[in-house]
Design brief:
The structure holds 2 protein chains of 2 kinds. By secondary structure, chain A is mainly α. Chain A has 11 helices and 5 strands, in the order αααααααββαββαααβ. The relative contact order of chain A is 0.10. Chains A and B meet through helix 1, helix 2 and helix 6 of A and helix 2, helix 3, strand 5, strand 6 and helix 4 of B.
C-alpha cells in the first residue's frame, strides 16, 4: 500500500498533466485543493532540478539565456529525472541530452561546452592524491623501459576534445571575463584540459599533440605508445618541456613500470 | 566562542554540542569561517554537500571542524521510501562520519523517492500504522549501517493524507521510542505545518518525549498568498518570525536546554547576520529557562 502510494505520487509529481492521478484521491482538500497542494511539490521538484543544472552549467545557461535554459531543463527532467538523493548527479546526462537536441544544428557546440562544464564538476569532487611525482627517478630510467612505463593521472584530470572552440567559449563566459569577446565558431576546435591543484580547478586549451598524449595516458597506454601517437598528431610535440608544467598542475601524480 | 582543538593534529574528538546556538554551514561562508571565525557554538553541514571524495568542499569542512563542534544533517537518504536504501549514499555517509566524527547525525521524517526516481524534496508520509512499522525498521537499518544513533526531524508539509491514522506528533514520538532514534525538533516546521493544517503547534511540542529531543532547528519561512488564501512555505529564506520565537521559548521552557541551530538556505545573508540570529536564539533560550 505505502509503496504503491509513493510510486503514484512520484509519477504525479513528474507528470505533464497530473489531474488524472490516483495519488490525488488520498490527499485532503480544504482551503487548497489536492491539485493545488500537489502543485507546490511539483513546483519544488522542477525548481530544485533547475537550480542544480544552473549551478552545474552556468556557461550553457548564459549561452542560451535563462528562459530557454529553464525550458530545456524541464524537457530534460522528463527524459532524465533525478536518480539519486545527492542532487549533484542530476547533470550527468545533460551533455548527452543536449547532443540529441543540437547535434546537427547551428548550436552543435552546446553539447561540447556542456561536456566541458560537467568535466569541471567531476574534477571538483574527485579524490585527492597527495603523492609527489618523483621526476628525478623518472629521469634515471633508460629509454628502452618507456614501453613499460605508465604515467598516473591525478583523479581529477579530465580531457574534453571538440571540433568547436569550447575553451574560448567557456573562458569568454566566465563572470569576470570582459563582455566584448567575439569567437569564430568555425575557427577550429579546442582540446579542454581540466586540472585540479590543491583546491582550485582550472580549464585550459592544449594542442593536438598534448591532447593525444594525455588521451593515451588516460587510457593507461604506456609512455612509448602515447609518445608515438602524440608525435603523429603533432610532430613538434615536445614531451620533455610539457612534463614540468603538467606535474606542477597536478596532471600526473606518479608513474609505474609494469 | 569557537572551541579550540585539543588533540594532536589530524585527530578530532567527537565533541558534544554546546548550549550556545549554532548555524548551518553554507559554502558561501567557507572562507569567512577561516579568516574571521564567527562567535557561534557549533555548525551543522548538509552531508550531501560534502560527499565529494576530495577537493575544496571536504577540505573546508575539515578546517572548520577543527574549530567548531559539528553536526551532520542529511537531506537525501529518503528514509521513508519503500525503495531499498541506497548503498552508495550510506557508504558516503559512513565515510563522512569516520572522517569528521560529528557530535550528531540527523535525517528527516519523510521520503523522497519511489521506483528509483527522486524528487529531491522532503515529502510527507501518511501517518499510518503501516508507515510507522516501515519507519521503525528503516531507521533501525540506517542506525545499524552507520553505527550511530540518528536524530529524526519533523518536516514542513503542504498536504495531508486521508490514510493517516494518527497525528504527526504521535507518529514521531512512537518512532523515537520504538526505533531508539532521537528527535530533531524543527520548531519552524511545526509552526508552518500547524498553520497550513490547522492544528495547535503546542500540542505537537507537548507530545515530545523530552529525553529524545537532541536538537532544535529554527529558520524563517515565507507566506504565499493565492487569492484570499495563504499557505506557509518552508523556504529558509529570512529571519525567524516572532510566532516561532514564542514557540521556541515554549519549547525550551518545557524541554530544558537543547542545542539549537539557525538554518538559512535561500538569499543567504552575511555571516554576521546568521551569528546575530544565533545570539538571538540564545537570548530567547535564557528567557525561557528563567521563566
Amino acid at each position: 500500500m505505502l509503496g504503491a502510494q509513493q510510486k503514484s505520487l512520484i509519477d504525479a509529481l513528474l507528470a505533464q498533466h497530473p489531474g488524472a492521478s490516483t495519488a490525488l484521491s488520498d490527499i485532503r482538500g480544504g482551503v487548497f485543493s489536492p491539485e493545488e497542494r500537489l502543485g507546490i511539490y511539483r513546483n519544488n521538484l522542477r525548481e530544485n532540478f533547475l537550480k542544480v543544472l544552473e549551478l552545474e552549467f552556468p556557461v550553457v545557461q548564459r549561452l542560451v539565456g535563462a528562459d530557454y535554459f529553464r525550458q530545456t531543463a524541464r524537457q530534460f527532467l522528463q527524459q532524465s529525472p533525478s536518480r539519486s538523493g545527492d542532487l549533484f548527479h542530476c547533470g550527468r546526462a545533460f551533455p548527452h541530452y543536449l547532443r540529441q537536441q543540437f547535434a546537427d544544428s547551428d548550436y552543435g557546440y552546446l553539447p561540447d561546452v556542456a561536456a566541458l562544464e560537467w568535466a569541471y564538476q567531476e574534477a571538483m569532487i574527485a579524490a585527492d592524491d597527495p603523492r609527489v611525482f618523483d621526476i628525478a627517478a623518472l629521469a634515471r630510467l633508460e629509454q628502452d623501459s618507456y614501453d613499460r612505463l605508465r604515467l598516473q593521472a591525478h583523479p581529477a584530470l579530465r580531457l574534453v576534445r571538440s571540433p568547436y572552440p569550447i575553451v574560448a567559449i567557456w573562458a569568454a563566459n566566465q563572470p569576470d571575463a570582459p563582455g566584448d569577446a567575439t569567437i569564430d565558431i568555425g575557427r577550429g576546435g579546442d582540446n579542454g584540459l581540466v586540472t585540479r591543484a590543491l583546491r582550485s580547478t582550472q580549464i585550459a586549451a592544449i594542442g593536438a599533440g598534448a591532447a593525444t598524449f594525455l588521451g593515451a595516458v588516460l587510457e593507461q597506454q604506456p609512455l612509448g605508445v602515447a609518445l608515438e601517437a602524440a608525435l603523429a598528431a603533432d610532430p613538434a610535440f615536445d614531451v620533455e618541456s610539457a612534463l614540468g608544467p603538467w606535474i606542477q598542475a597536478r596532471v600526473f601524480v606518479g608513474w609505474s613500470l609494469a | 566562542m569557537p572551541v579550540s582543538r585539543e588533540q594532536s593534529p589530524g585527530r578530532l574528538t567527537t565533541q558534544a554540542l554546546p548550549a550556545q546556538a549554532g548555524i548551518g554551514l553554507r559554502a558561501v561562508h567557507h572562507d569567512e569561517f577561516l579568516s574571521a571565525p564567527p562567535d557561534v557554538g557549533w555548525v551543522e553541514a548538509h552531508s550531501e554537500n560534502y560527499f565529494a571524495l576530495g577537493g575544496a568542499q571536504p577540505w573546508y569542512l575539515e578546517q572548520i571542524r577543527n574549530r567548531y563542534p559539528l553536526s551532520l544533517h542529511g537531506v537525501g537518504l529518503s528514509i521513508g521510501s519503500t525503495d531499498p536504501l541506497d548503498a552508495t549514499h550510506l557508504a558516503n555517509w559512513r565515510r563522512l562520519i569516520s572522517r569528521f566524527e560529528p557530535a550528531l547525525v540527523s535525517e528527516h521524517l519523510c521520503w523522497s523517492s519511489a521506483g528509483g526516481i527522486f524528487s529531491n524534496d522532503l515529502l510527507p508520509l501518511p501517518y499510518s500504522r503501516e508507515a510507522l512499522e516501515h519507519l521503525v525498521s528503516r531507521v533501525g537499518q540506517v542506525q545499524d549501517a552507520l553505527g550511530r544513533q540518528l536524530l529524526i526531524e519533523n518536516v514542513s508539509s503542504y498536504l495531508e493524507f486521508k490514510s493517516s491514522e494518527m497525528p504527526e506528533w504521535d507518529f514521531l514520538a512512537q518512532l523515537a521510542q520504538r526505533a531508539g532514534c532521537g528527535i530533531l525538533l524543527d520548531v519552524n516546521n511545526i509552526y508552518v505545518s500547524a498553520c497550513n493544517h490547522g492544528f495547535d503547534a503546542r500540542k505537537f511540542i507537548d507530545a515530545m518525549p523530552a529525553k529524545a529531543v537532541g536538537e532544535i532547528h529554527l529558520a524563517g519561512h515565507s507566506v504565499n498568498r493565492i487569492d484570499e488564501r495563504q499557505i506557509r512555505i518552508d523556504t529558509h529564506s529570512t529571519h525567524v518570525c516572532d510566532a516561532v520565537w514564542d514557540l521556541y521559548e515554549y519549547t525550551i521552557h518545557k524541554l530544558g536546554p537543547v542545542p539549537t541551530l539557525i538554518e538559512w538556505d535561500l538569499d543567504i545573508p552575511a555571516l554576521a547576520v546568521l551569528a546575530a540570529e544565533a545570539a538571538r536564539a540564545d537570548q530567547h533560550a535564557r528567557l525561557a529557562l528563567a521563566a
